[in-house]
Amino acid sequence: MANIVQFENIGLRYGTGAETLTDVSFTLRSGQFYFVTGASGAGKTSLLKLLYLAQRPTRGVIRLFGEDAVLLPRDRLPGFRRRIGVVFQDFRLVPHLSARDNIALPLRVAGVPEVDIEQPVQEMLAWVGLAERAQARPATLSGGEQQRVAIARAVIGRPEILVADEPTGNVDPDMAERLLHLFDSLNKLGTTVVVATHDFHLLNRIPHAQMMRLDHGRLLDPTGSLRHPPHRPES
Ligand SMILES: Nc1ncnc2c1ncn2[C@@H]1O[C@H](COP(=O)(O)OP(=O)(O)OP(=O)(O)O)[C@@H](O)[C@H]1O
Questions:
Q1: Superfamily of domain 3-220
Q2: Bridge partners of 37?
Q3: Which residues pair with 68 in a beta bridge?
Q4: Greater model confidence, 200 or 147
Q5: What's its job (predicted)?
Q6: pLDDT, position 170
Q7: Residue 82 pLDDT > 50
Q8: What's the whole-model pTM score?
């Protein structure tokens, strides 16, 4: 399995405050399932934003698909972003578009001809169990239905990585399990999946998933120790 993402000594500071992420180093292997956990404010969303190229680090190196993502020229960003699907806790659907048109949006933005859009959209609607709700606007869908539209929109372009930030935060436990099942089935088809969650019930549902635990902006190792302890000068 190839390394699809590498973070090396990443630091992130917003404005002039303290660092939000400090010395974060890890490697993601293609085709694996990862959970990012940690208390509120630990830096989960910040780490995911770096991963889906919505934020640049203050220091360190990010390698994505084998290339330096921090030094990537601006004109190559959209092409890179298309290789990463993103699902948010609050869905972020376009309110005036139907479920069908929300799902079609990434293909339209990428300039895919209309004749080639209908079939993948139908397949996605069926996959997330919403074939009957194709014409519905987001406001008329339940939270779980909206999130399934958001997942379909995130994966219709067949991204290599799917990143989801607290995707089950606004749905009931049964729906959370159903959504996780969608992520798991995508992962089994080869997509690398990264899910940030507070929800410890979910973690046990994917036994083969790897855990990435953040504590005050630092990654812990599997035993709960800091992976990269702060440097203490010799006294
Ligand atoms: N755009 C920003 N500007 C300034 N500070 C920010 C910004 N985004 C996040 N922070 C700060 O960075 C820290 C980590 O926030 P982040 O949202 O990454 O944590 P989180 O683990 O995802 O938290 P939660 O589980 O509550 O969503 C917090 O102290 C937060 O206030």
A1: P-loop containing nucleotide triphosphate hydrolases (3.40.50.300)
A2: 213
A3: 63
A4: 147
A5: Part of the ABC transporter FtsEX involved in cellular division. Important for assembly or stability of the septal ring.
A6: 86
A7: yes
A8: 0.92
Does the pLDDT at position 224 exceed 60?
no
> How many angstroms separate the CA atoms of 147 and 128, rounded?
10
Describe the crossing of helices 118-127 and 143-155 by its angle, rounded to 10 degrees: 140
Paired strand residues for 84? 161
Which tokens in the block code for residue 123?
A: 């397949």
Place of tokens 């992962």: 187
DSSP 8-state assignment for residue 227: S
Q: Report which protein residue has its CA nearest ligand 1's atom 31.
A: 41
pLDDT band at 235 (very low <50, low <70, confident <90, very high): very low
H/E stretch holding 186 reads helix 173-188
Q: Is the CB–ligand 1 distance for residue 14 below 6 Å?
A: yes
pLDDT score of 49? 97
46 lines ligand 1 (CB under 6 A): yes
Is the CB of 90 inside a 6 Å radius of any atom of ligand 1?
A: no
Q: Count of residues for the chain?
A: 235
Q: Is 179 near ligand 1, meaning CB less than 6 Å away? A: no
Q: What tens digit of pLDDT does each residue of 12-39 get?
A: 999 998 999 999 999 999 999 999 999 9
Neighbours of 215 (CB within 10 A): 15
User: How many angstroms separate the CA atoms of 164 and 87, rounded?
Assistant: 4
ipTM score here? 0.97
**Number of CB atoms found within 10 A of residue 126's CB:** 12
